[in-house]
Structures are given as structure tokens and as C-alpha cells.
Amino acid sequence: xxxxxxxxxxxxxxxxxxxxxxxxxxxxxxxxxxxxxxxxxxxxxxxxxxxxxxxxxxxxxxxxxxxxxxxxxxxxxxxxxxxxxxxxxxxxxxxxxxxxxxxxxxxxxxxxxxxxxxxxxxxxxxxxxxxxxxxxxxxxxxxxxxxxxxxxxxxxxxxxxxxxxxxxxxxxxxxxxxxxxxxxxxxxxxxxxxxxxxxxxxxxxxxxxxxxxxxxxxxxxxxxxxxxxxxxxxxxxxxxxxxxxxxxxxxxxxxxxxxxxxxxxxxxxxxxxxxxxxxxxxxxxxxxxxxxxxxxxxxxxxxxxxxxxxxxxxxxxxxxxxxxxxxxxxxxxxxxxxxxxxxxxxxxxxxxxxxxxxxxxxxxxxxxxxxxxxxxxxxxxxxxxxxxxxxxxxxxxxxxxxxxxxxxxxxxxxxxxxxxxxxxxxxxxxxxxxxxxxxxxxxxxxxxxxxxxxxxxxxxxxxxxxxxxxxxxxxxxxxxxxxxxxxxxxxxxxxxxxxxxxxxxxxxxxxxxxxxxxxxxxxxxxxxxxxxxxxxxxxxxxxxxxxxxxxxxxxxxxxxxxxxxxxxxxxxxxxxxxxxxxxxxxxxxxxxxxxxxxxxxxxxxxxxxxxxxxxxxxxxxxxxxxxxxxxxxxxxxxxxxxxxxxxxxxxxxxxxxxxxxxxxxxx
Amino acid sequence: xxxxxxxxxxxxxxxxxxxxxxxxxxxxxxxxxxxxxxxxxxxxxxxxxxxxxxxxxxxxxxxxxxxxxxxxxxxxxxxxxxxxxxxxxxxxxxxxxxxxxxxxxxxxxxxxxxxxxxxxxxxxxxxxxxxxxxxxxxxxxxxxxxxxxxxxx
Lengths: 667, 153
Prior knowledge:
The complex is a heterodimer of chains A (about 675) and B (about 150). Helix content of chain A is about 25%, strand content about 25%. Chain A is of the alpha/beta class and about 675 residues long. Chain B is α/β, with parallel strands linked by helices and about 150 residues long. Chain B has a single domain, classed as Rossmann fold (3-Layer(aba) Sandwich). Chain B has a 4-stranded parallel beta sheet, sandwiched between helices. The chains are: A alpha/beta (about 675), B alpha/beta (about 150). Chains A and B meet through helix 4, helix 5, helix 17 and helix 18 of A and helix 1, strand 2, helix 2 and helix 3 of B.
């Protein structure tokens, strides 16, 4: 026989005004299983909670119903009070007689009847509650950061500085990401490399950061606290331990005309190369498509020249497994491909702008390389076709962004600012040049951002045309840009020497595949989904997996860095605990009756249910079964409802509990 | 939300309504109706579940069996599920289950599905008022008992 205590709160007058507390208490005292039914003016107050604690001890209560406000308000309060008196907190239920009764009904008779029924339901439920213990899961206090751009660098350094080990995986031969290639950054015009490269060096030298460059995450197993990650180290053909980074090899390499990825195709590199002088690690890599020795077996001059004999033509890809407890995805962005050749059938490209057809139509990142002191022109603005200094440049914003017809509805957020910056940098270098900008709106929300745009217009004389460009053609050596200025209501034609397209930001290649591997959601454009847009902005629905930077949505450097620190903070909070503790109100499978149809496995949004085997004491196979991983289950109960053999149940909301709640309402 | 609903109507029939709601959207929507003191008929009894995905539709049958004249199932709007996709599972299963119920002869006007968010206290109050009024019109669900008895005999 149960010994349940029912404690009804008056909530001052809030409940007592519409609910006849005396009648209610008398009625509840008659309910089978109820040992004691009392009421008090403010149950949540200290004396109220003390009276609950006292009664638990005096009456040896084994279940508690507090009839008061919403469980969202005070369930935790009363569970703590119960625990303080030695009663398992999961043996406490609340009956919501305020929000769902006294506050929404006026008739005292009806409200009292309803309140009694609400409490009876809670009594029926609580007598079927189980004493539960928080689930403890051991964890590996080591984080994986995927992507070595500015966000990944920030997250890695923050976690490592907090005292935990980090495995940082970068796909390219060097960390640094897009930011390493930028010229100067808005709104301060400080040199991008000057800010970033010291942070890159810190990563390279940090005793707690293990860096894998030219490597990709190939597979992930496990769950929060206990991931096993397969990392493919692509063949670099250079022994990283022997190489000193002296540069003798690339100096003699005869394969010269290879477009530099780092220079966005604006310059060339050798077949053996480091992407840029400040690369971390400062070790070269051989491009096997360009290397004469790897292609034809002839050449090998780099190997002859290399004093420490670090060239390894027989190098192979290597797959390494690392164990980590948390993952941060910081895979960043790529630019929208402006030509019509698109990987997504919804994106149709901007053939009319002549990108890829006219050499002097370039994109924003290519302009960054032109304007960068470390770029192919050493920072001189020279147009790609003939190296002449352009006297008139047209900058076009929103190429692909905010354009439903071309497939992307979102704003790429950084373009308004970098277009203003480009115009400014250009004018600082070519004083007699003209900078024309076509724009839809100028979105300059951010600290000192609006002022920056005003400066481009007022001090540097950038000419803004509010309107779209319909077509760009090449006539008599000029790029003829035909557009409209909707503010003056006239078509505008500009004969330009160069055109820079601010193309939309898209998630970087392979981000969707990676998201699937880690069970993280993506939106229709492939950006990774956060768990809650306001309150859980760096968490994902996959426990232990966090996101930061432009893989989540278009964002600028300060925002990416802030988010990276936030994600690192979440990881550090997780690691600061001895073990992971999780709510025990989760699902479990009755393995004896489970028919192993695995409908639940397919329905679970958290991949928390796995296919398993029931073995006898000697390890012989008995049957297949579904099994819930308590480290992953979030307790939604979808599996319970889909199970055809009724073999799954959910603690706290079990079949028995809910059916008896319904039955208590029988007339 | 009419005043008259608090007293038994002319013929004295007051429907019994059981609502299965999810913890994160509709339950909180009903909480909000309370916080805003939005009055609605007292005929409804709310049963809290973590998610509409948890709702086994046999529960709906059970509710009718214990004498409910109408049943409400309500959760987060599509796309807003706290658990990502539970409400889609609920919707998919309901589409199948309603055919089964229809075949059995259950009056689908007795079963109401809704998406009510944590911000929609007003929608909850109105919805309960509407369902109550509609069920008053329909009268007590005695036919269900006849179905059960037909099955038994």
C-alpha cells in the first residue's frame, strides 16, 4: 500500500479564491493510497517546504503530490525538498491546479471538482513512479575541433587554455582558413594576417593541441563523452618530422604553372609548396596531380635537393582513430559559384555577369588576394587580364544572396561591409580611381559599422547606386555594366575596367556529409542547425556536438570568434564535471519481448537506440533486440508510441502511468 | 470563453474532454492562458506527455472508453518540436490511426488535433471553448459505448 502525501497550496488567494480547499482536502484524504492530505497558504515558501519535509519523515511517505502551480514553475523546488528529507526526488509529481484550473475558471464548484480530478490523476501517476538516479556516463575529456579557420583556432585555443586536450583537424595543408587570405578587415582596416598568424603559431606550439592538417574526418562512432573519430591523413609526400621547412624543395621545383588555391586562382604555386609563407605547419605538401615525378616518374629534383631527405614519394593516406568526448564543428563557408555550373539544382548562377568568361570579373575573395600585401601582386591593384591598373571598378553586392530566383533567400551579412572596405582599399591605392557600388540595401549593423560605410562614401568617395545590375558585356576592352539606379529612377551604364562580385556565402563543401556523420541537422541551404535559436545557439541536437562560425550561418569575424569562445565554454563546462550526468527519465527496452523490428531505431531523433544482441551467460546468441543508450536518450518517448510489440517504455511517462491517469477520470 | 459555459447548459449535459498535450508547447500554452487569466470551460482534463510523438493513439481509445465525449491531442507546430521531429511522427501515425477508427465506426468529430505553441495561450483557451461548444452540440458520446457493447456481444 502506498503512503502518498498530498500537499495543496493556496498560493495566497490565487488558488483558494476559486478552489474550495477544505472540500478538496477532505476529498483527497479519501483517495486510496493517500496517507496524508494537508494544505498550506504558500507551499513553496520555507515553512511550506519544511512542512513537506517533516511529513515525509513523520509519515514515512513514499510518494508526493504537490497541488499548486505548473510543474514548469516549481517541480524542481519540490523535488529538492523531497530529496532533502530522504525521499527520491523522482517520487514527486505536481498537480497543476493554478494555471490549468483556478486561474482559468470562475465557478468555484466546477473548479473544485476539476482540481480534485487533477490531483487524483497525479496520485495515480505518482504511485507508479520509480525511484531514479541521475545517469552517470564517463567521458573522455578531450575535444575534437573540425576546421582550422579563425573559429576553429579560437575554439581550440580556448579549450586548450582551459586545460583540456584538443585534436584540431584541418582539410587544407595549413590552418588559417579564409581569414588568412583576407587583406584588411572591417571596420578597423587592420591587417588580417597580422591578427591571425600569431594565433596560428600559438595553435602550432600549444602543448595541448594535436594538429592534423591536410586531413579529414571520415567517420564518427559513439556518443557524447565517448566519441571515436576516424581521421584520414592525406598523403603529403613530405615527412613532417624530418622536414625543416627550409624551402629548398619548392625553389627548385620545375612545375610552376599551378593555380594557387590560397590565391583563389589569382596566382601560381609550385607542385611542392606551402600555401603561404606564414602557414602552420610551415611544411610543404606535394600536389600529386602536378608533380612530374608522381605523374611520370621523371624529375625528383626536390628529393635530390632536400638535405634532411624528407621527401617521401611512396607516402600513403593514413587513417587514425582519436578518442574524444566533445566535438566542435567549425567548417566555415565557401563562396557561391557564380557561373551556371551549380551543385544544387535550385541555384541557377549568374551567367549574365560573365564570371569565368571575362577575366576581369572576379569575386570578393579574389579581390582580397589582389589587395593583400602577401598576394600575387604584392597588394597592387592590377586587373587579371593584362596587369593594368583599373581606373574604374564596379562592385556588385547581393550576388546570389537575397535572391529567391537564384535560390538563396538569406542575406550573406558580411558583403555590405566588405564591399565598402574594398571600395576604400581601392581608393587608398588608386587615388584617381572610381569605385561604383550597386546595392539593394546597406546593412551595417554592428559596432562602428555604419560609421565605416559613411567613411567609404564621404571620405573616400565611393559612389553607391541603389539597384541591380542586369548584364555585363565586354565591349572595346571595357566591361560594360548595365544596371539601374532606383533612387534616381534611371538606367545606369558604367564602362568599367574591372568588376568585383560579392557572391553569397554558402556552407563549405562536405558540411552536410559531416553533419550527417555527427547527427546534426542542416537547413535547406546546408547550414548546420543549432539546438535553439535563442537559448542554445552553439549546441546542436546531437549531445556533445557544438557548432561555431560560418558553418551555422553567414557571419563576420567578430561573431565567429564570439561563437567559437561560446562553444569552447560549453565544452569546458562539460569537462569540468567528473562525469556526465543526465536526466534519468528516459526510455528502456524490454529485451525479452522486443521483436527486433527496429521501428524505434528509425523513429528516434537522437540515434539513441541501437541494434544489440541478447546473449546467455556463456556468451551464446539468444536473440536480437533494440537497446537504448542512456547517454543519448532525451526522453521524448517517440519510440514508446511506435513500438508494435509494446516493448519500450519511458520512465516518468510510462504506459502504466498514463493509462492509470486516464482511468482515474472514469465516471 | 463564454460565461455561460461554466454552468450546465439547458439540458444539463456537460461534455467530458480529455486532452493529451506535449510538455514543451501546448502544456506551456495552457500555462500561459492561466497566467493571462483567460477564462475557458472547465470541461477539459489535461494529461502531460513529453511530446506528441509519445502519444500512443490507443490512449485516445482509452479516453473514449472511460467516458470522454471528446479528445484533444495537441503539440508543437510542425518544425518547432522540442525533440526535432516527434510531432511529425504523431501526425503520420494519426493519419493512419484515424482510418482505423473510422473503420471501427468512431466519430472523428470527437477527436481534435491541434498545434498550439507555448506563446498561444489565447489559442488554447479558444480551442478548448470551441471543442466544448461543439461537443455540447453533439451531445454525450453514447454511440461509443454501443460500439464497445457490439464488440463484446
